[in-house]
Amino acid sequence: MSKDAKPAHKRIDQFFSGPGSRADEWRDLVEAAKVWARVGNRAVYDAALAELSVTEEFYGYPGLHLMAALREAASASDGATSLALATRITQALATRSFRQHAGDWSATDDGNGEALELVPPMFSAHTARRPYFETLIVTGVSSSQWPALAAEWRKLRRPIDGFIYEPVIVGSLEDAFCATMLNPNIAAVIINEGFGLRSRHNAPVLRSITASAGLNDESDASALRLAQIIKRVRPELDLYMISNRDVEELAGNPEANVVRRIFYSVEELLELHLSILEGIQDRYDTPFFDNLKKYAQRPIGTFHALPIARGKSIFKSDWIRDMGEFYGPNLFLAESSATTGGLDSMLEPTGNIKKAQEKAARALGADRVFFVTNGTSTSNKMAVQALLAPGDIAIVDRNCHKSHHYGMVLAGAQPLYVEAFPMTEYSMYGAVPLKTIKQALLGAKADGRLDRVKMVDLTNCTFDGHIYNTRRVMEECLAIKPDLIFLWDEAWFGFARFSPFLRRRTAMGAANDIEVWMHDPKSIAAYEKQQAELGKNPSDELLLKTRLIPDPRQIRLRVYQTNSTHKSMSAIRQGSMLSVKDVEFHTVEQQFKEAVFTHASTSPNQQLIASLDISRRQMELEGYGLVANAIEIAFAIRNAVNNNPLISRYFRILGADAMVPAQYRQSGFTDYLAAGVNWANTLKSLDEDEFCLDPTRMTLVCGTAGFDGTQFKGILANEYNIQVNKTSRNSVLVQSNINNTRSDVAHLIRVLAEIAGEVDRGLTQGGANAKKTFEARVKSLMTDVPDLPNFSHFHPSFRGDAGAKTNEGDIRTGFYAAYDAAGCEHIRLDDLEIDRRLKAGPELVSANFVIPYPPGFPIMVPGQVITQETIDFMRKLDVKEIHGYDAKEGLKLVGAEALAKIGRPKPGATPKLKAAS
């Protein structure tokens, strides 16, 4: 929610009011205390403290005691104490020192005053550093007993415990939900019976959400219901239940599977404490990394082919010792090409790599996960090769990453390209409309070729942040063909698993939701009702405009998801994971292994594997808070750019309403920063809209400042040490991630203000000619943009036995046609021969993938017939980097004789009719 739309009083359901917002509120309290001390205005301080107190109930620190101390100081009109205590708490929160230092928990400066007995035991500077977390306790006991209850929990701490935690106590389902959503430090939840439903605080939108979930009266506030709600929003949390009733019956209830352990009453409080620590330890363990650390400390003689192992060739050298000094000894001590002696094989994991992958599968909501050390390009090619055979048809986004296209070449599969909606003004494409995908399936069905369509292969989210409604896409496609395989390239979206808002839009999140729906008896009734409404032979037109419901009895759920772990988590570059949820995996397991053998290195980097293991640990234990912070950082950047009078004159960040056409935002959602945005309307958009925008991906328009994307990217990098990734003709892509801080935001905004100021001064001081030149440049970048070319069609020589209503082609034959140098020709782009042949023939057929950067998608693929719009686009391009095109040689084309030869039946083969393109 933007600051302009901030409510007059605190609302605990405010959308994306995350860690930064909390820090700002504490700083506001300190400033109000300073004003009180300086001019005697206490009212502002009292209001700020009252507002802050609402949400601070949901955090372990500063906790009940320190918040009470703040209120007591205010009631006693003690401004000096109020300022001192508020300042210390704010500093402790900012530096996170409260996690290790007992003094931060005291209400007095020296830590020796009246509050000392309330400092958590075994929580001092004399103990070794231990990771800190907070445990949510949901209870029905009176709030007056909470301090005593917290003290009892603290007494359970022991010096030998590997972790230390602070209790957070709430007394209602709504408060438990709020604490879970607002407090990223919570890592475990204890649910007692007997709590109420309603929060004590104002949360009208929150209540509308709980009402939509069927939570309408106090009888809905059951421990099991709360456990299911929490597990849905934060599946990484360990849940424990304490019951005074028949725990045996409860433990046998399948719905209680969300709970890690059930206890009877409070008879075994120490066991519960130990269970909490064990649950954290299970997530903290990193099987491969832990073993690699032990391996590095062993005295090992290496007689294998890796000279840098143990580092002796580095540190004994006069010439390359600086490399060892730069990286440190552990990098080399931990290197090995061995797969024995405690290590494991990436190709055939049976030990700690296998265990690490199993933990990753749990974290990502998959049945199994494969670690990949060659990047997601390799993950994609592995999946395509394993799941498709020569002649299989795959529906593919034409604008997907090149690895998918090359995967089709390797597999011999026939891509049926589908087009994303164009965003011509910004020289980029969005995502593929569901209607387009359904039309491709229905076309194959009409041709009697639906059995050959094996896969739908899409990018989620796209480079520019377009997110599919993954569940709807899969359900409607499965309604047409119930055994379709889905490959979702989520290279940029791996972090989304750890956001309760975005998780539903991930491949694994949607697959798990579909799986739950399939086992709901209501699913069959919904399917049969729709079938009755559609009739026996519904027209394609009716099917295209209907939100189709699949038959849950026929679905074979087969979902694959790739993510570039290094792009959104703390993994070393090229670290990738391939997640699988496939009921038929046993039928493709062997060929999947063969794909791994084909593409995976036999000498993977040990440090890279370790970083994949570590990244999983981090995201399971603190990913929720890190992702929330990344989203909040993105909102801070959007606000600062678009609301700054100078910066917004020349730059702007596009909102969801500019990035997603209105027809794909069925809920009416406009943007995350629009006035009145909250959880309810955001969730409605995430559930209903065909496309959403990833909030962490920001398209910064620079063409209005007279810069093209490539030029502006270079200015940011070379002159200001700011790195961005993708560019378009008139924009650059700014991306926030779990690594960013508010200091990064400040640096970016300062730089944009400086550049905007230079542009402004240049126009002011340059006179009419400068203004005229600037306007012409902006017009060239923002108005005179080339139309984006769609995929045309494959030449009949590469169509084989293709159907009449679909447009797939034999890309593999087209690819290898380029290997016949004598059968190919080159024509320069400016040669008039191109224009003559476009009008009179013979057709121009590409022998290569041609991929300009930007926009980064193939405007030509092998075997594609080149059209006028593609030539026009290439001639208007002003980018330097075009893969697959040599400006000196020109376009590489498959010659007419070679085409005729390819299209001719081979001796002894059964002639095939060439379908019209």
Report on this model:
There is one protein chain. The strands form seven sheets. This protein has a seven-stranded mixed β-sheet, sandwiched between helices. The chain has a five-stranded parallel β-sheet with strand order 2-1-3-4-5, sandwiched between helices. It has a three-stranded antiparallel β-sheet with strand order 16-18-19. Helices cover 44% and strands 12% of the residues. A hairpin with a 4-residue loop joins β9 and β10. The chain is built from 34 helices and 23 strands. The chain has 917 residues and is of the alpha/beta class.
Please describe the topology of this protein.
Elements: H1 19-39, H2 43-56, H3 63-75, H4 79-95, E1 132-138, H5 146-154, E2 164-170, H6 173-182, E3 186-192, H7 204-212, H8 223-233, E4 238-243, H9 247-251, E5 261-264, H10 269-284, H11 287-296, H12 312-315, H13 321-327, H14 329-333, H15 352-364, E6 368-372, H16 376-387, E7 393-397, H17 402-411, E8 414-418, E9 422-423, E10 428-429, H18 434-446, E11 453-459, E12 466-468, H19 470-480, E13 485-489, H20 507-518, H21 521-534, H22 540-545, E14 558-563, H23 565-568, E15 576-582, H24 585-599, H25 606-643, H26 647-650, E16 652-653, H27 656-659, H28 679-688, E17 691-693, E18 697-701, H29 709-720, E19 731-735, H30 742-782, H31 811-817, E20 824-827, H32 832-840, E21 851-853, H33 868-876, E22 881-883, E23 891-894, H34 896-903
Parallel strand pairs: 1-2, 1-3, 3-4, 4-5, 7-8, 7-11, 11-13, 13-14
Antiparallel strand pairs: 6-15, 9-10, 12-17, 14-15, 16-18, 18-19, 20-23, 21-22
Helix pairs in contact: 1-2, 1-4, 2-3, 3-4, 6-8, 11-25, 15-25, 16-17, 16-24, 17-31, 18-19, 19-20, 25-30
Pfam families: OKR_DC_1
InterPro entries: LL-DAP_aminotransferase, Orn/Lys/Arg_deCO2ase_major_dom, Prn/Lys/Arg_de-COase_C_sf, PyrdxlP-dep_Trfase, PyrdxlP-dep_Trfase_major
Protein name: Decarboxylase
